[in-house]
Each structure stands twice: as C-alpha cells, then as structure tokens.
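Question thread 4412

I'm putting together a teaching handout and wanted feedback from people who do this every day. The idea is simple: show students a protein as raw sequence, then show them the structure tokens that encode its fold, then repeat with a second protein so they can compare. Below is the first pair exactly as I plan to print it.
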Amino acid sequence: MERQLVESSNLASIGYDPETSTLEVEFNNGAIWQYFDVPESVWHEFESSESKGKFFGQEVRGQYSESQVG
C-alpha cells in the first residue's frame, strides 16, 4: 500500500486502501500496522488533521481490528 510521509512525533507515514477500507500506519520505530473496516470519511479526517498522532490516538487506536504487518 502506498503511504504518505507525515510530520508527527509518533507516526512516520499513513496510507489508505478504499477498496478494502484498510488504513496502514507506519510508526517512527519502524512498526507497520493495518486497521480494518475504517470508513473513508475517517481517512479523510485523519489525512487532513493538524495533529496526526492525536487523531490516531483518539479516533483510530482501539477502535478497529488491527494487525501488525511489519
């Protein structure tokens, strides 16, 4: 999945696949996680949020099924 680099103290890059509603997050420590059944509207909010780390912590972490892929 193609990800875009982000400015964040915790996150390195984020990406989204609208075909599968899968959000992919790469953390600054190199870990890559996928989050499943994420609505496209949440992706757009995440992508445009001023603080990616804050948005992730409040709106993504613990809200969706997840799997570490890297």
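The second pair follows. I'd like the answer to focus on this one:
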Amino acid sequence: MAKEQGTKENPWLLKTPPLSSDFTMHKDLKDGKDILVCTVGKTILHYDYQCLSDLQTMLKKHGDWIELGSADEQKPAKENTVEAWGRSEKNPVGGWYGLKKGLRGRFGMYIPPLMEKLGLAEVTHDPKGNKMRAK
C-alpha cells in the first residue's frame, strides 16, 4: 500500500516554477494549527495550510493567468501578483501566509508548484515571469 504523500516521512517532491531548484513540502501541526513545511536546502519555511484553499478561491475569482511575482520578505512584492496577494491585508488571513518572521516571503515561488501537484492549478515553467491559474 502506498504511503500517504505530503507527510514528514513522505513529503511532496517539487521543483520551483522555472524548474531550476528542488524542494520538499509536507503538512504538519504547529501550535494546534495546520501548516505547510517547505524545505529548500537547509532553509525551512512555514506557510499557513489554509493558503491552498484560499489561493484556489482567489484564482477562480480572478479567472485568468496571474503572475507569481515571488520576492523575499524584505523586498516589496510586485502589485497584482500571487506574492502580493499572499501578504496582503485584503486576503482571508489579513496578511502574511508565511509564518516564520524573516522568511515569510517567496509565497509565489513555493506554493504554486504544490497547487499544481495537487491538481488545483496550472503553472507556467519559463525561466522568468511565471504565472498560474485555477484548474
């Protein structure tokens, strides 16, 4: 019997949208809250698990391709991108989906490949300027 994917023991194996780097993600529990644990080399990021359904809802409302716009927390996010939405006061959590201070950015880099893997979205795989839309 196949092990459930997305666990610490059997994480999702993913690639960044330009297909240039590998990373893993799995679901975990922290302080009684479901989170996504994203491991990129030695760096570990946490995102609110709720981001998956919230982002799919936003993409469906948007109805078309939207630029990912990935940026580190310390850099401003380009307007009208997945990254900007992932830190906007107007999203369902009222701010950052990234949960580790200093490492809350890159939402537009690491969440879209998981959405694609789960069949929730389509993602382009160009060297730069990638986009996504709801499936």
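Top answer:
Good format. For the second protein you could add a caption like this: Residues 32 and 57 are 24 Å apart (CA to CA). The radius of gyration is 14 Å.
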